[in-house]
Design goal:
Neuraminidase, globular, Noelin_dom, alpha+beta, four-stranded antiparallel beta sheet, synapse, coiled coil, 6 helices
Length: 474
Amino acid sequence: PLLKIGAVLSTMAMVTNWMSQTLPSLVGLNGTAVSRAGTSEKISPDEGWQVFTSAQAPDGKCLCTAVIPVQGSCSRDLRSLQLRQLMEKVQNISQSMEVLDLRTFRDLQYVRNTEALLKGLDSRLRAASDGHKSLSARSFQDLKEKMRELLPLLPVLEQYKADARLILHLKDEVRNLSGILLAIQEEMGAYDYEELQQRVLLLEARLHACLQKLGCGKLTGVSNPITIRASGSRFGSWMTDTMTPSADSRVWYMDGYYKGRRVLEFRSLTDFVSGQNFVQHLLPHPWAGTGHVVFNGSLYYNKFQSNVAVRYHFRSRSVLVQRSLSGAGYNNTFPYSWGGFSDIDFMVDENGLWAVYTTNQNAGNIVVSRVDPHTLEVLRSWDTGYPKRSAGESFMICGILYVTNSHLAGAKIYFAYYTNTSSYEYTDIPFHNQYSHISMLDYNPRERVLYTWNNGHQVIYNVTLFHVIKTDGE
């Protein structure tokens, strides 16, 4: 075997030497490879070795004409790949920062108004204290009590403003890091990759902390339904991207709950309402259920008659990855109460991509899993203990799974499972099911609304989240 390996290595060395002599005559200045037959073909920078002609010599040997990739050494290719991956991460961080900025804008406006009211009340109290003869003793005491109740809010407001400044600082850091990455694309090795990677990881950690502190909370209320459009069959799914710049307002529409392959992409919500200005995507694999989600330009869905998760990329119109969810039931083995092949339900919240399903090992109870959006690998799973066939629908907000007790009229949000503490509680949050048959329910963290398909109607609900901002003294 060692002799054979030596012979192979020797042959490879001869081929490499021949290639180095032949390459200048085979590759033009514009990156075009020319074969012996006189034909030409463009070489992609990302392609590997190319064989352009092959023939048989009189002695029976195979003669091939090949060209080494135009790109340089393997180390440069690896560094280029690493930089592209870093740039993708920074882009995702930038988009998440924009989402956080949009979500906290209204809260910050309320905080500023509240601060003005508090300061005005404080001034009135001070004036009354200096000349309290103009007030009755009872009125003065009432005013003083109200001020005492409101005073603890002042440090909270100051903390909120400081956190808002932190968001602006993080955005500046993201822009700075993006500029560095763009600059070193043309000059490889000019910056230490490991240091860049650490900066990106640190930004991700700080962003996650900001999201948990400012953008997250416990669901306390759901608004009345807002009907956007009435279209399609009784069952279906519609959505916007859960992580994308605010300028991107595309809407995706998938009618039906099984064997479907047709996805309509509308340019905006206005176009969706009017049913105009859309393009069609024809999926290579049909879907099952209605638990689809669009996350960062890709559609995640369950492949029909399987427990395979599929990631379809809209811009390239191709499947980037597909992976089986080990042990997950499919084909109406463990659906929601309404059926419809709803065994596997994909969701996105502030923490990323999730899959909700169940297995025989979990005795039909809901399993919630964190999923890597790039590889579809399951990162961690939780057994909630709630029977999936008794659930109408479910959705994730801030790492908490909320479950409705029915898909019909009279439904309410009945159960909450907290992945951060692996604990649960029963809830009683009213949920107005206007059209009496929900077959899709998903939370969009970018817009802080619930998207619903209700008996041929596309409906949204605003949500109220309760979160406590802790100050240093607490």
